[in-house]
Write a structure and sequence with these properties.
The complex is a heterotrimer of chains A (269), B (418) and C (333). Chain A has 2 domains: 48 residues, no CATH class; 212 residues, MetI-like (MetI-like fold). Chain A is built from 14 helices and no strands. Chain A is globular and about 70 Å long. By secondary structure, chain B is an alpha/beta fold. Chain B has 2 domains: 163 residues, D-Maltodextrin-Binding Protein, domain 2 (3-Layer(aba) Sandwich), CATH 3.40.190.10; 155 residues, D-Maltodextrin-Binding Protein, domain 2 (3-Layer(aba) Sandwich), CATH 3.40.190.10. Chain B contains 18 helices and 15 strands. In chain B, helix 2 packs antiparallel against helix 14 and helix 17 packs antiparallel against helix 18. The N terminus of chain B is likely disordered. Chain C is flat. Chain C folds into 2 domains: 31 residues; 240 residues, MetI-like (MetI-like fold, Orthogonal Bundle). In chain C, strands 1-2 form a two-stranded antiparallel ribbon. Chain C is built from 15 helices and 2 strands. Classes of the chains: A mainly alpha (269), B alpha/beta (418), C mainly alpha (333). Chains in contact: A-B, A-C, B-C.
């Protein structure tokens, strides 16, 4: 323990800086509106627990929670699958035009997302998907970011196992599924976590394509609580806090995967 | 480019598919069966007004059992971006809220439809119905209205033993009072010369000084007019004399926050601030309202939201029926109990009576000398220029007449493009 | 695991693997497996594997970009409808001082924003220590910024930076310094925002680096320890080189992300009045913000398309440069 004292000091100091806004959010969620916007701010909560109750009055919380879970879950599964497939091809398989296609893919990553709002809306609208689950999920199934992340990860994996499997007559599908994917687990977990996070926090897209409150996600529902002249910040923060609890739980569980990763990928090269 | 043939083919196929689909969708429903069940979508942007809007929708369905209305709330911050996407994608709500700065853009692009038949517009304030008239035709009915007044902190007046503002006070009175209330060393100021919300500040003083923002035909900027400049100088002088915090301070802490912290004695605000100031634990019981001070003349900006109908709606008759209901006396009375000031003449008593402790009648009295909100077809373009150029004068980097003249040139260029 | 980097001071384990080939984007070599038909088969599988993502990307992402490229050559109405204007928008672009300013600001953000990478690597290494107590707990704490509501984040930072009531200036006043209005003063605003940007990206980058660290086999550390390398030597001779593919990824993605910066300025620089009323705005505005304003606010969409095409060109060049120089420092297995 003593040898880690310095490390603990650094980590505690940094952790304080990292959690401050989160604590602020908790404190604000327990204040009255007048005190939440007060200048200079008070740092003490007031015990206004009714703010949490109000969240359920102003939002169809259950519905929106379910939509959020569906959207985030499907996007995550889809991206991990599709991106890992494409990443495997770009990292390991040879085919004409590979570099050019990868370059095109990367170029998509370079486009500011604001550009896609109207064109994607038009596509969803012409498919007749407005106000539907597909609208929330489908555009988020494909990601240049995910392909690039996993490709980098696959390139760092040892090749010997794959080569041995190929000599044994395994085809690309089997190599991908039973060798590459298990080896790349930390990378897949990282991607899953990031997609989950982004989908969970994604506010603008659900707000734009879905208008029916029952078909919106929590983040979009919460954003709708902001009035033109006045916003009930305590209720907003309480809602956001409730919405983020599942994600924090998922992370706490998944972060153990990062530790286990050592055991599985540290194979004899 | 780098596109391979394969991808080109995919893109082309998609393009065809997309254009084929979008060709079919819109257009009006062929048979207009008056008894068919119809659902109208109604786009609004204020979370605080959503409950009232839903009440109105339910009331409407009581008398029109075949029409249900679904209120769609998009927060203000994203409302116009989403509406643009929706319009481009052919899926705008049937009926939606419109504001002054955006109105002509939507009317001139035929996104919203002119009102069919006759409507009695005389029951609404004229500057409001004028605001929503384009090329001689009315495009919707005003729903609510708001005017501007001075909110003042009685406690700060009492502390300095100053009398509260009188109804006939002048610019000189205001400036004088502001100077007396200021105590820069303690961070307390008489007022705050906000930049960024022209409706409550610059536009009012410009009108009071006898100047104008845009010529009546919408083709020429008024910012180089000496009277307009006088209206702006009113504010920059207040900053210079330390009767108002400087722009940096107001960027860090907004004037309304300063007012709610007792750091600003007189806050130029709107009728929409009532609910906030009566609920805030600091301002509650400490503030009241006075009319805007008189410059060369008395003036306040009037603005209000209107209900408009999308050109692409499949149910134009039902949509207009709903808009007419929303513009009716009956609807105005419901709105006035729990919302902004209704626009319909004579329905405002409920709104005034809701807070007898405040002189809310001030907001209504000012309608008689109210001037319309300045707009053109692409208001947003020169609204941006106003900020870009006037910031330089607000920081003291440039004298106000220079900044305003430069703004006038930039605005004229933008207006020429409309 | 094979590696090619093998710095001279490295030893047994890695040395044994010398001679394994270098993979990578440019010269990736497929597993050796006959020629002719099996090659063709492999190529077909390659296309099959990229097909789902490829199709989705083409429809939802590539197609809009191509459309925008076309519209950058037109005057494009607020609700559609366009007239061909050739290179007019680009000509206007080259003489618009706001574009140049936004570009300089954006490049500054990008350069300074790279600080997030060494920070994230440092924290990742500390949080990856085995046998240290509370590691899981720390990780969760470091993760919290990414789930904190942006409104709350902005409120905290705006309070810290507040010129009159802020914590920073209060602390400075204790030692007799009168601090500025951090986000409203043209001299400090950009740097104040960079700090927030770095702060908020550390959490994400940390997730990626933690994953990257897992892929480093512990044998390498054991071998290095046998060679007598202390924690610092191990960090520089094992961790850093083997983390380089991940670092390369993060660097490419961070540069792209910084060049696309938008939200940060939007929430941090504006008060109720919007970012443009901030006197420091000329030092803060970014290219994407300019694009957004032209596309969605002032209804100048053709010009907005040209701005975004210009930005795309800048990003392509900067990314290509990074790929070109990756050989110098990135070590693939």
């Amino acid at each position: 323990m003593r040898k880690n004292l310095g490390v603990h000091t650094i980590l505690i100091a940094a952790a304080l800086a990292m959690v401050a806004p989160f604590c602020w959010q908790i404190v604000t969620s327990l204040k009255s509106l007048s005190n939440a916007t007060k200048v200079p701010p008070s740092l003490l909560p007031e015990g206004r627990w009714d703010n949490y109750g109000k969240v359920f009055d102003v939002l169809p919380f259950g519905h929106q929670f379910l939509n959020t879970v569906l959207m985030a879950g499907l996007r995550t599964i889809g991206q991990v699958l599709f991106c890992s497939m494409a990443a495997y091809a770009f990292a390991r398989l040879r085919f004409p035009g590979r570099n050019v296609l990868f370059g095109i893919l990367l170029s998509v990553l370079m486009v500011p997302p604001q550009l896609f709002i109207i064109p994607q809306y038009q596509i969803i609208s012409s498919l007749g998907w407005l106000n539907s689950l597909q609208a929330l999920v489908v555009p988020g199934l494909f990601s240049a970011f995910g392909v690039f992340l996993l490709r980098q990860f696959f390139l760092g994996l040892p090749k010997e196992l794959e080569e041995a499997a190929a000599i044994d007559g395994a085809g690309p599908v089997r190599i991908y599924w039973s060798i590459v994917l298990p080896l790349a687990r930390p990378g897949l977990v990282a991607l899953a976590l990031l997609v989950l996070l982004w989908s969970w926090n994604d506010l603008f897209w659900p707000l734009v394509v879905n208008t029916d409150p029952g078909k919106m996600t929590l983040s979009a529902g919460l954003a709708s609580l902001q009035g033109q002249f006045q916003t009930d910040y305590p209720v907003l923060m309480a809602g956001s806090l409730l919405a983020s609890l599942p994600i924090i739980a998922v992370f706490t569980v998944l972060q153990r995967q990062f530790i286990q990763g050592i055991a599985t990928s540290g194979i004899k090269g | 480019m780098w596109m391979s043939k394969r991808l080109g083919a995919v893109a082309l196929a998609t393009m065809l598919a997309v254009s084929a689909c979008s060709g079919g969708g819109d257009g009006k429903a062929a048979a207009a069966d008056p008894n068919a069940k119809v659902t109208l979508s109604y786009g609004v942007w204020d979370a605080n007004q959503k409950p009232v809007m839903e009440t109105l929708a339910t009331e409407f369905t009581k008398t029109h059992p075949n029409i249900t209305v679904q209120v769609q709330l998009t927060p203000w911050a994203d409302y116009w971006t989403k509406l643009k996407a929706a319009v481009t994608g052919g899926a705008a709500p049937d009926v939606f809220w419109m504001n002054g700065p955006n109105f002509q853009l939507y009317a001139s692009n035929k996104v919203i439809a002119p009102m069919p038949g006759d409507a009695d517009l005389s029951v609404y304030p004229k500057p409001l119905t004028d605001l929503y008239t384009f090329e001689g035709k009315p495009y919707g009915l005003p729903k609510d209205m708001d005017t501007v007044a001075v909110w003042y902190n009685k406690k700060l007046f009492d502390a300095k033993k100053l009398p509260y503002p009188k109804d006939d006070w002048t610019w000189a009175d205001f400036t004088d009072t502001a100077a007396k209330l200021s105590d820069p060393a303690k961070g307390v100021y008489g007022t705050a010369a906000q930049l960024g919300s022209f409706q409550e500040y610059q536009y009012d003083t410009i009108a009071q000084a006898g100047g104008y923002v845009i010529s009546p035909d919408g083709k020429k900027s008024g910012y180089s007019d000496p009277k307009t400049i006088a209206g702006l100088k009113f504010w920059t002088d207040l900053i210079e004399n330390k009767s108002s915090p400087d722009l940096k301070t107001m960027t860090d802490t907004t004037p309304i926050q300063l007012f709610e912290a007792g750091k600003i004695a007189m806050y130029w605000g709107g009728s929409w601030n009532v609910s906030e100031f009566t609920a805030n634990s600091y301002t509650k019981g400490k503030v009241d309202v006075a009319p805007l001070p008189r410059g060369e003349k008395q003036a306040t900006i009037i603005h209000g939201v209107a209900n408009v109908v999308s050109t692409k709606t499949s149910h134009p008759d039902q949509a207009w029926e709903f808009v007419r209901y929303l513009g009716s006396k009956q609807a105005a009375e419901i709105l006035g109990q729990k919302g902004p000031i209704p626009a319909y003449d004579g329905t405002q008593t409920a709104w005034v009576k809701a807070h007898p402790e405040l002189k809310l009648q001030t907001f209504l009295d000012s309608v008689s000398y109210a001037v319309p909100f300045p707009v053109s077809k692409n208001t947003a373009a020169w609204n941006e220029a106003e900020l870009t150029y006037l910031t330089k004068a607000w920081t003291g980097q440039e004298p106000i007449d220079k900044a305003a003249t430069e703004l006038a040139q930039a605005m004229d260029t933008l207006l020429a493009k409309e | 695991m094979t590696t090619t980097m093998t710095p001279p001071h490295r030893s047994a384990t890695a040395g044994a693997r010398r001679g394994a080939e270098r993979g990578g984007w440019r010269r990736g070599r497929a597993p050796r497996r006959g020629r002719g038909p099996s090659r063709r088969k492999e190529a077909l599988w390659g296309y099959a594997f990229i097909a789902p993502t490829g199709l989705g990307i083409a429809v939802f992402y590539l197609w809009p970009v191509l459309q925008t490229a076309y519209f950058s050559l037109t005057e494009w109405g607020a609700f559609g409808g366009h007239t061909w204007t050739g290179l007019d928008n680009y000509r206007r672009l080259s003489s618009d001082p706001e574009v140049g300013r936004a570009l300089v600001n954006t490049l500054t953000y990008t350069g300074l924003g790279l600080l997030s990478i060494p920070l994230a690597i440092g924290f990742a290494v500390l949080l990856n220590r085995k046998g240290m107590r509370f590691v899981g707990f720390y990780r969760t704490l470091f993760f919290l910024p990414v789930v904190t509501m942006p409104v709350a984040i902005a409120m905290v930072w705006r309070w810290l930076y507040n010129g009159d009531y802020g914590l920073i200036n209060y602390l400075l006043s204790l030692i007799g310094i009168d601090g500025p209005n951090w986000v409203a003063d043209p001299a400090t605003a950009l740097y104040a925002l960079v700090v927030v940007g770095v702060w908020s990206s550390v959490g994400y980058n940390l997730i990626i680096f933690l994953a990257g660290l897992q892929a480093i086999p512990k044998e390498y550390y054991e071998a290095a320890a046998i060679d007598g390398a202390g924690p610092f030597r191990q960090f520089f001779s094992v961790t850093l080189p083997l983390l380089s593919p991940t670092a390369f990824f993060v660097s490419v993605v961070s540069v792209i992300g910084s060049l696309q910066l938008f939200d940060l300025v939007y929430v941090m620089a504006g008060s109720g009045a919007g970012a443009r009323a901030n006197p420091a705005f000329p030092r803060l505005e970014t290219v994407v913000q300019l694009f957004y304003d032209r596309a969605f606010v002032t209804n100048d969409r053709g010009y907005a398309a040209a701005i975004v095409m210009m930005l795309l060109l800048v990003i392509v060049v900067l990314t290509a440069v990074q790929f070109r120089f990756q050989k110098r420092w990135v070590h693939y297995a």
